Amino acid sequence: MDSYKIKSEKREIPLIPLRGLSVFPYMVVHFDVGRDKSINALEEAMVNDSLIFLTAQKEAKVDIPTPEDFYKVGTVCKIKQMLKLPGDTIRVLVEGINRGRITEILKEEPYFESEIEEVIYEIDESNKEIKAMMRLVVERFEEYVSLGNKISPDVIVTVDEIKEPGRLADVISSYIHLKPDNKQKILEAFDPYKRLEVLHIILEEEIEVLQIEDKISNRVKKQINKVQKEYYLKEQLKAIQKELGEGESLEEEVLEYEEKINKIKMPDEVKEKALKEVNRLRRLSPASAETAVIRNYVEWIIELPWDKQTKDRVDIKKSREILDKDHYGLKDVKERILEYLAIRKLAKDMKGPILCLVGPPGVGKTSIAKSIARSINRKFVRMSLGGVRDEAEIRGHRRTYVGAIPGRIISSIKKVKSKNPVFLFDEIDKINSDFRGDPASALLEVLDPEQNSTFTDHFLEVPFDLSKVMFITTANTINTIPRPLLDRMEIIRVSGYTEEEKLEIAKGYLVTKQLKEHGLKEKNINISENALRDIINNYTREAGVRSLERSIATVFRKSAKRIVEDKVKTVRINSGNLDKYLGIPKYRYEMAAKENQIGIATGLAWTAVGGETLSIEVTPMGGKGKLQLTGKLGDVMKESAMTGISYIRSKAKDLNINDDFHEKQDIHIHVPEGAIPKDGPSAGITMATAVISALTNIPIDSALAMTGEITLRGRVLPIGGVKEKVLAANRAGIKKVLLPYENKKDMEEIPDKIKKRLNIVFVKTMDEVLDHALVTEENEHEN
Ligand code: ADP
Description:
Blueprint: E1 3-18, E2 28-33, H1 36-47, E3 51-56, E4 73-85, E5 89-107, E6 112-123, H2 128-146, H3 154-160, H4 165-175, H5 180-188, H6 192-244, H7 251-263, H8 268-282, H9 289-303, H10 316-326, H11 331-346, E7 354-358, H12 365-375, E8 380-384, H13 391-395, H14 408-416, E9 422-426, H15 439-447, E10 455-456, E11 463-464, E12 470-475, H16 483-488, E13 489-493, H17 499-517, E14 525-527, H18 529-539, H19 546-565, E15 571-573, H20 578-582, E16 600-607, E17 610-622, E18 627-631, H21 635-650, H22 661-664, E19 665-671, H23 684-696, E20 704-706, E21 709-710, E22 716-717, H24 722-731, E23 736-740, H25 752-757, E24 759-763, H26 766-773
Parallel strand pairs: 1-3, 7-12, 7-13, 8-9, 9-12, 14-15, 16-20, 18-19, 20-23, 23-24
Antiparallel strand pairs: 1-6, 2-5, 3-4, 4-5, 5-6, 10-11, 16-17, 17-19, 21-22
The structure holds adenosine-5'-diphosphate.
Adenosine-5'-diphosphate (ADP) binds at residues 327-330, 361-367, 474, 505, 509, 544-546, 549.
């Protein structure tokens, strides 16, 4: 290294050996002086130029040092301030000026007088090696500071600004905490580059030690923290438990559980598992999360009706009485149910099929299931499957999930407290399956008599016997019931009601029920038959009686208010004042009295919520023979429209239609009204009729409705849902209904009153349909 020694100066100044302290040049420091010799040295210095040579004693404990006891290299310092402290001590503030080496001790009494050689190096600050060295040292120093020494970050800024290498080393050295011999090493490095090197090595060592210290202390701190936290929490818990009067031990609880479990007659497997879980409580602290989980589990086990069931009533006569008392009509349904019960009575263990009540909403499916339970003296529980898509809803969550509970089947069983209830799965046609598993397959297991004696809920982990349960299901339509489920069930259709039937239900059941629910007496309300009829016709339009019941409830609610507020004794409701209670009528059934129109035919459709009339509109337009279909139509309906068009093409001549209509005209078929997609081929003849009317400009009888499938040759094929459709036509004020000839057999279902009111015509071919539907001058008078 090229550093130049430019100056070497000698001076004679007093000397003080310091105990446990080294002073570096540029360092400002104070220390206390008590030894006589040192005080003498200070006094001598003060009379001259305030300079003093400070050097460290090799051994701090030596009280009266000789020159051998102190280092030869130290610092020439300037005394800045002196303060006399009580008890002959003096506090001195000094500033380090320059390092120096003792060349000779001139005298030892009354103080040490020394000859000092100061060597001053001038160094080339632009030298790259030096610069690099400086940077390294500063970096190490920063690291040293960052390791949490009590050095203010400002110091780094100060250090950063130092340009002279030697000074840098000295300033840093004065800040860091070093062993005396290390300090001395730095002090003795006169060459600034050398000094930086020495400092660098020392810093490295220090950093390493600090890092290790840090690691150790972190580890220790963590341990202490954890222990402390647990300790605090435990203490808090103890305090809370004390407040709540809970004991320290779970033993009492465990014994109680054991007693309860032993009392219940349950399968050995379950008992074993339950007792095992209870026993685990013994080893846990009352407050641990696991204790709560086990408690929850054990309580579920204890509360399930393992050995509780109701005794069946096996009196068919009595059952019939109850069914009749609860429901008007439904003759076939009741008969079927009684047969079912009789078979169960005869062959106790016969696993009969599951009953599935299918029909539109509000026709009494749920309430008849409830009635079945009542008639055989069983508890009743209902679970709606509408929108259930998660298998866990049926089978429960595994206990590893936080907050896990059993599925809804086990929950329901626990709620009814009986293992042989009538269990109703409502809306089995609305169950969905997706990525959360297939609820249908779980349900299949539940409904399968071969499997359901060992139904295992994920939460319970032990089987529960569902074989004593009487399952009944309901659905609006069988179309969307998963096939394997459908195969297990016996379908009982519950169809919609006629106006007369609704009237009977209202008079005999709904009025009484609603009176009771509103706390009214019979004498309080007098509702006329005509008023009920008006509600049925003008305020509701439904296959069942749900809105009817709701409307009656509204009327009674408002009546109750009058009785209480206006002190009216008896409220009379009749056709004339019904609108005061229900507002203006919502429906008018005279819609069929509209004029006969070209291209508009009335069809009859069957949907999941009952029968419906639908008017089909057709407009031919100039074009290229495109067939356009709009409205909510299913694929089958589209195909049947195409079949109709093909039929028309083949018969164009007979029908007086241009036989190139399919090349020159676009035909637009629209099925308005109703958001329910209509599917099925039963609109075939209706669409064909509307198209023919539009192409021939012959109007269609508006008081006529029709339903039937069409073939390419114009034959009319049978369709389903006849009763619902005929009822819908009747509701809509239709006078004449065209039905496929082969549906004649379904006439049994139709009440005589309706048969009398409606002109029902059975047709075999499209020609017959057109004869009835198209209003030509010849047949106008017949209709
Ligand atoms: P669903 O389950 O078919 O949708 P609900 O069982 O909920 O229908 O029936 C709706 C209401 O109509 C219930 O209050 C029910 O008692 C009543 N109800 C339906 N059909 C009859 C009937 N034939 N006789 C007496 N009340 C009936």
